[in-house]
Amino acid sequence: MGRETLDHTRFMYKKVVDEWVDAIREEEALATADHSMTAMEEWDAAHFREQEAQARAKQARDKYKDELRRANYNI
User: Fold this and answer.
1) CA distances (Å), origin 25, targets 6, 30, 51, 56, 65
2) pTM of the full predicted structure?
3) What 8-state DSSP symbol labels residue 33?
4) pLDDT per position in the chain (75 positions), as tens?
5) Would you call 39 exposed, middle or buried from its count of C-beta atoms within 10 A (0-12, 13-18, 19+)?
6) Where are the domains of the chain?
7) Residue 37 region, left (φ>0) first, then alpha (ψ -120 to 50), else beta?
8) Which helix (H) or strand (E) holds 22?
9) Euclidean distance between CA atoms 68 and 62, whole angstroms
């Protein structure tokens, strides 16, 4: 496992985490004083996007950790 591969995987992990943070902020921004059904549905949709982004971040983290284990411990 080369350093370039680890650097790329780390970069991708950080990129996906940034996307997750953006999704969290989007969801939080939609918790507004507008108590309409439409606003609630938009807020719910943002929550689902946040959950999907979190799942991608966890997958990227696991991939990076696996590559680090292979590089450092040969497992």
Assistant:
1) 29, 9, 12, 16, 26
2) 0.90
3) S
4) 799 999 999 999 999 999 999 999 999 999 999 999 999 999 999 999 999 999 999 999 999 999 999 999 998
5) middle
6) 3-73
7) alpha
8) helix 3-29
9) 10
Longest dimension (CA), the chain: 55
Burial of 26 (0-12, 13-18, 19+ CB in 10 A): middle
pLDDT of residue 60: 98
The pLDDT, as a whole number, for residue 21 is 98
Distance CA 22, CA 49 (A): 10
User: Over the range 52-66, which residues count as b (16 or more CB within 10 Å of their CB) and which as e?
Assistant: ebbebbeebeeebee
